[in-house]
Amino acid sequence: MKIDDIRVFVPCKNYQQSCAFYQALGFNVEQASADLSIATSGECSLFLQRYYNQEFAENLMLQVCVLNINEAFDIISKLTNFDIRFEGIKQELWGKVIYLWGPSGELLHVTEFN
């Protein structure tokens, strides 16, 4: 089996808010059906679904790799209209990371590698 791509389905506590959140992060969000949207940035994409399971959402982690962590932090720190939380940039041995909890409780590791 040759795998071409893997995409995650992100559960949305508030579907419209999650779509707006990912758009504010820089994703292009297009509706695929009444209950599903595709969020795309470059060659990367994920699904936003009108489905919510709290335990799953709060245990979901995504790594979002960026080229400039400072630019990412600037964008994240201006997201005031969403029920989110984030921590400042942390230096790790392998690079830098911002921990960002999305509106459904999903944890995004916004990462710039060395």
UniProtKB/TrEMBL annotation:
It comes from the Bacteria. One of its GO terms (molecular function) is lyase activity. SUPFAM superfamilies: Glyoxalase/Bleomycin resistance protein/Dihydroxybiphenyl dioxygenase. Keywords: Lyase. This is Lactoylglutathione lyase. It comes from Pseudoalteromonas marina.
